[in-house]
Amino acid sequence: MTDTKKPNRKRKIAKRIWLNEMEERELKRKAKKAGVSQSGLVRSLIRGYEPKEKPGKELFEALCQLSAIGNNVHQLAAKANALGFIDAPMLHKDVKEWRAFRADIVRRFLSPDGE
Q1: Residues 47, 32: Cα–Cα separation, whole Å
Q2: For the stretch 49-80, what's the b/e string if a residue is b when 16 or more beta carbons lie within 10 angstroms of its beta carbon?
């Protein structure tokens, strides 16, 4: 079955499946828990992984705080480098480590398969 109503749709093949009531509840629950659509959950399972539970609000708040801290550190590094009175290589190393830490948080908590 193809969708002629939305020609710009990325996925053009629709599938109809039959579920019992328990399976339908479980599909809805798991999709909601992961923060994805039911179709998105099925596609993830087809690709071989089950999405992680959607992170809580606290994680996103922490990421915003980390971003603010990182921006401050970056500004300090630029100023210190310009004025030449702080160990710029050490500060740049800290910024690099912070960026790796932030990327690790995103990978562990937000990526569907931990990639």
Answers
A1: 19
A2: eebbeebeeeeeeebeeeeeebeebeeebeeb
Strand partners, 2: 13
Tokens of 10: 């990325």
Percentage of the residues of the chain whose pLDDT score is greater than 70: 91
Boundaries of every domain in the chain: 1-52, 57-109
pLDDT digits (tens, 9 = 90+) for 40-69: 999 989 998 877 777 778 788 888 888 888
3-state SS track over the chain? CECCCCCCCCCCECCCCCCCHHHHHHHHHHHHHHCCCHHHHHHHHHCCCCCCCCCCHHHHHHHHHHHHHHHHHHHHHHHHHHHCCCCHHHHHHHHHHHHHHHHHHHHHHCCCCCC
Structure tokens at 41: 């959950």
Q: Is the pTM of this model over 0.85?
A: no
Contact between 33 and 26 under an 8 Å Cβ cutoff? The reply is no
